[in-house]
Design a protein that fits this description.
Shape: elongated
Oligomer: single chain
Strand content: 15-25%
Strand order of the largest sheet: 1-2-3-4-5-6-7-8
């Protein structure tokens, strides 16, 4: 019996009847190309294709048949299928080993192969861990996760199903072949690290029509459109809106005071969108404070700055009104993305000093959001010795002594110059401490200070840099700079994020 190499790549060369590449000649060319690229084994469909590939390629071949007329299991489900594959010279037979209805008992198929074709190995295609538990006793040569997500009982499994690999290796020493929805090289590598013996990649390599569809689907919503986007930034004091082009250039802008009731905030938001959008506007982005479920567009948590804001499904409200599904994100994340877009640094910290203290982090060009939308919420790090109560409910958040509100009340409005200078020094030391804490954690390239802070001039920035150098004598503090994107940075960032699909 042939062996499949450990930590290897299997390429699935399959085209069913009716597909453009159907036929043994085409599949042979696919297999030859895969071999040249370094494939360690070939998985292929139909006996005649197996026979053709075996004539020209000396790699292990996993053969299978498909009968989609069956309601349940359909991959190599009869003794006749096995016999035809064996005559074609297959090295392994892939069997559908799911718990679905089948024309012949699974155990009989195993016995048939073991007794009549002992030189042929068995690859057990399964969908979940229960399938594995059922077939371990039959001792297949390999277990493949091929059907995870393709049965009624595994439809909710993640794709690709990396966790299933880990689960299998915990209960059996039978080698696991990771298969099913492996699209990117990093996923293949992750599968091996998770414990896979080998990985099969199919459609992402050998089905041009599906590869084309993946690319086309990422362009479909851009067809025949000028790429104008509306961005709305709902802050604690102001709600700002812009209409921008794909380059982030403002075509229109408008702002109004943020209402003190969530219901009115929504009305004003929808009104701003209506005023700003044109017939060519097909993208909308919303920035707002709080922890945002980016996938669903829901405010998962909000401080008291906007009453009745927690739980609001912003995405649904906007879609119902304009028939456009918006991107909804934290306001500081949007400001950080705008900074990244404009100044091209892929690793940065953006601190927005406003009614509160917003933090946005971009790493490797992507916004850091965290599991529940709380990634980058640096304003709610506890500062030692701080006893101020924060609007989030915690005590000691650094936001309470670094926010624009704190600046206005403790520095801008004070007349005693000595007291002002002392408070500026204290503020600078605290800001430097915060920047150093975050930089030590994630190692960003640049730090930008935005919001109202640039209004306090170069003296404030120099003080912050000086304080940073006192904390960190090794690092040059000139990575800290003001952001001069202006008050509409969050709205612009939200608009730019609305263009993205499957990234940022």
């Amino acid at each position: 019996m042939k062996k499949i190499k450990q930590n290897s790549l299997i390429v699935s060369c399959q085209a069913e009847e009716g597909e453009p590449l159907y036929g043994k000649e085409t599949m042979l060319k696919m297999a030859l190309a895969a071999k040249i690229g370094g494939a360690d084994a070939i998985r292929t469909l139909y006996p005649d294709v197996v026979e053709e590939i075996k004539k020209h390629i000396d790699l292990p071949i996993i053969g299978l048949t498909k009968n989609r007329n069956f309601k349940g299991a359909f991959i190599t489900t009869t003794k006749k299928d096995i016999e035809e594959l064996a005559k074609a010279g297959t090295d392994f037979v892939a069997l559908d080993c799911t718990r679905r209805e089948r024309p012949e008992p699974l155990e009989e198929l195993f016995i048939y192969i073991r007794t009549k074709y002992p030189e042929i190995g068995i690859v057990a295609d399964i969908a979940d861990i229960s399938d594995v538990e059922n077939i371990i006793r039959l001792k297949p040569d390999y277990i493949a996760t091929t059907l995870s997500g393709y049965t009624d009982y595994s439809i909710e499994r993640p794709t690709p199903d990396l966790d299933l690999i880990s689960d299998i290796v915990k209960i059996t020493k039978i080698p696991v072949i990771a298969e099913g929805n492996y699209t990117y090289p990093y996923q293949v590598r992750k599968a091996i690290i998770k414990g896979a013996y080998a990985v099969t990649v199919g459609s992402a390599i050998t089905r041009p029509q599906m590869i084309t569809k993946i690319f086309k689907d990422h362009l479909r919503d851009l067809e025949n459109k000028d790429l104008q986007a509306v961005g709305i930034d709902i802050g604690g004091t102001w709600t700002r809106g812009v209409l921008v082009d794909r380059f982030g250039q403002i075509l229109r802008k408008e702002k109004l005071r943020t209402a003190n009731k969530g219901e009115t905030v929504v009305v004003n938001m929808l009104s701003l969108i209506k005023n700003l959008k044109t017939e060519d506007t097909n993208f909308i982005g919303i920035a707002t404070g709080g922890k945002i479920n980016f996938e669903k567009g829901i405010v998962e948590f909000s401080t008291g700055l906007i009453p009745d804001w927690q739980g609001v499904n912003i995405a649904d409200l906007v879609e119902d009104e304009f028939n456009i599904r918006p991107k909804v994100d934290n306001d500081a994340n949007c400001a950080a993305y705008c900074q990244h877009f404009k100044t091209k640094e892929n690793n940065l910290l953006m601190i927005t000093v406003g009614t509160g203290l917003g933090g946005g982090i971009v790493m490797n060009g992507e916004v850091v959001r965290g599991v529940k939308g709380s990634g980058g919420e640096i304003g709610h790090i506890i500062f030692p010795g701080n006893n101020h109560k924060c609007s989030c409910g915690k005590t000691g958040c650094v936001e309470t002594i670094l926010s624009g509100k704190y600046l206005k009340e403790n520095i801008y409005e004070k007349e005693n110059s000595r007291e002002v200078l002392e408070k500026i020094d204290n503020y600078s030391r605290t800001m430097a401490w915060l920047i150093d804490s975050v930089k030590t954690t994630i190692g960003f390239e640049k730090c930008y200070l935005g919001g109202v802070l640039p209004n306090y001039g170069e003296t404030m920035l120099s003080n912050i840099k000086k304080s940073y150098q006192e904390i960190n004598t090794i690092e040059d503090p000139n990575f800290i700079n003001y952001s001069f994107l202006g008050e509409y940075a969050g709205a612009i960032g939200a608009a730019l994020l609305s263009y993205q699909k499957g990234e940022a």
